[in-house]
Amino acid sequence: MGHVLKPVETHPGVLVHPTADRRLAAGHWLLSTLPAPQRAMARQEWRCHEVAMLPLGGLFSAVRLPGRMVAAVAGRSETAALDAFLAQALDGGPVICDPHFSRYYALVPASMPRTWHKAVDDWRTRDVDCLGRGTYLGVPRPDAVQDARGRASYWAVPMDSPATLCAPMVVARLIAAGWRTLATEPEE
After folding, report:
1. Helix axes 79-89 and 67-74, enclosed angle (nearest 10)
2. Which residues contact 93 (CB under 8 A, 6 or more apart)?
3. Among 48, 106, 147, 187, which is disulfide-ready with 166 (CB 3.0 to 4.6 Å)?
4. How many whole angstroms separate alpha carbon 45 and alpha carbon 57?
């Protein structure tokens, strides 16, 4: 006699995707900024150099933040503390760190340079810029999530899933807080 299988009871619930799957999906989304023939070259750049140059203004743009401003508003200067601060301050929105030039790049909607143009013009006087069409950004591979010696850049706040970006208003508030904090610091 054969065994009779009992039906499996199913429960509606939340589908959980492992971090590796989310990073893979985010990588595909990031590479979709390039025409199909150039994606293989960008993947090779990620493998060999951990950074690929991707065009801004199509799927996303980036707000460049000086490290000095981020450290001032965070009240800390240690790399891990700054990364944690940015994750909290920007509600988990993705941020790239370029440790060699002490800059952070908050990834924002592609429309931000156009829709926030007045604020962007004011920001430029303080070493903050909103980079969009006609600009390329060195984007680390999705698993480059911590500062490592010799690494050109890394994800200070990793992209949690495709198309997850920083909210422009949240980035603007961080910039305003940074300026207020820097304005109260004594001149060196």
Report:
1. 80
2. 106, 107, 108, 157, 164, 165, 166, 167, 170, 171
3. 106
4. 21
CB-based contacts of 42, cutoff 8 Å, min separation 6: 31, 34, 52, 53, 54
Structure tokens at 165: 């970006």
Q: Which two tokens stand for residue 176?
A: 């305003």
Closest CA to 94 of 175, 17, 18, 30: 30
The alpha carbon of 21 is separated from its chain's Cα centroid by a whole number of angstroms, namely: 18
Q: Is the dihedral of CA 44, 48, 50, 53 positive or negative?
A: negative
What type of residue sits at position 115?
T
For residues 165 and 148, is the Cβ–Cβ distance under 8 A?
A: no
Cβ–Cβ under 8 Å, residues 153 and 51: yes
Q: Give the global pTM.
A: 0.87
Q: Which residue has the tokens 């429309």?
A: 111
pLDDT one-digit tens code per residue, 8-39: 555 565 555 677 888 889 999 999 999 998 99
Single-letter amino acid, residue 24:
L
